[in-house]
Design brief:
By secondary structure, this protein is mainly alpha-helical. Helix 1 crosses helix 3, helix 3 runs antiparallel to helix 5 and helix 8 packs across helix 9. It has a two-stranded antiparallel sheet. The protein folds into 3 domains: 136 residues; 87 residues, Helix Hairpins; 36 residues, no CATH class.
């Protein structure tokens, strides 16, 4: 009898937590917004951590962030319908790697730049864009994703360059140099006043330029391309259509895309 009660309480707690993370009720939406704000604050810390590392309070903040991230991972795992399957998802494995860099900041210092990938992970999960959909601005999601992808790459590359080429004894000035080099490489400006030494430096520069150009093209397409809605055609499966489309441009099937004026 006692085990049955404990099992019932356990199940109810999981359902309640699952509704908070994935529900659409006002209390669940407030909870999700609070989680998103905390995630963005943590990402801001990740961006600033290379220049904060020498401060006395760095380890306190670092371990506090590790505790928050660990609690969030544990709560999501507890709420998952299949915890073991959930733990094998790429985004979860990425969070576990980030958690490891927080728990062992000195031992895994060379992998600290991977923390910024959490911004991309949050973007891919949709958590950043749900408020836009609720507020009636879904058209901002596509350019927003492109901006997040570009910003993630900029800070990821900056962190890698700073850790690999500029870290020792350079402090804030070294981090700014790494960011400056990344931006000039991504935009293919190439002033040449700061270069990466050796063969690995040249290879790193090539990779940054190639990926950076692709992300800039993607951003330009997202900003200037006409807005399209995600509405799978029931006949051919084409995903993206003009917001006012009546027929699918691929197969001609009649579409019923809802808009604000639909009844």
């Amino acid at each position: 009898m006692r085990r049955r009660r404990l099992r019932t309480r356990f199940t109810r707690a999981r359902i309640r937590l699952r509704r908070l993370y994935h529900g659409r009720r006002p209390n669940a939406l407030r909870f999700q917004m609070a989680v998103l704000v905390v995630d963005l604050v943590i990402i801001a810390f990740f961006i600033a951590s290379p220049v904060l590392r020498e401060r006395p309070s760095f380890l306190v903040i670092d371990y506090s962030v590790a505790a928050i991230l660990g609690i969030d991972i544990a709560a999501r795992c507890f709420a998952a319908r299949e915890p073991l399957r959930w733990l094998r998802q790429p985004f979860v494995l990425l969070d576990l790697i980030i958690l490891a860099t927080l728990l062992f900041p000195n031992e895994l210092i060379n992998f600290g730049f991977l923390r910024i990938v959490r911004l991309w992970s949050i973007s891919q999960s949709g958590a950043l864009w749900r408020p836009l959909r609720r507020w009636g601005h879904p058209e901002l999601e596509t350019p927003g994703r492109a901006i997040v992808n570009l910003m993630t790459f900029l800070f990821l590359a900056t962190g890698f360059i700073y850790t690999t080429f500029f870290r020792y004894g350079s402090g804030l000035e070294g981090y700014i140099d790494a960011f400056y080099f990344t931006v000039t490489s991504v935009t293919t400006t190439g002033y040449g006043d700061i270069i990466l030494p050796g063969t690995w430096g040249k290879l790193t520069s090539i990779v940054i330029m190639i990926i950076g150009i692709s992300l800039f093209v993607r951003l330009a397409q997202a900003v200037f391309r006409p807005y399209k809605v995600m509405f799978p055609c029931p006949d051919c499966g084409l995903q993206r259509h003009d917001a006012d489309a009546v027929h699918c441009k691929a197969c001609g099937h009649m579409l019923k895309i809802r808009d604000d004026g639909a009844t």
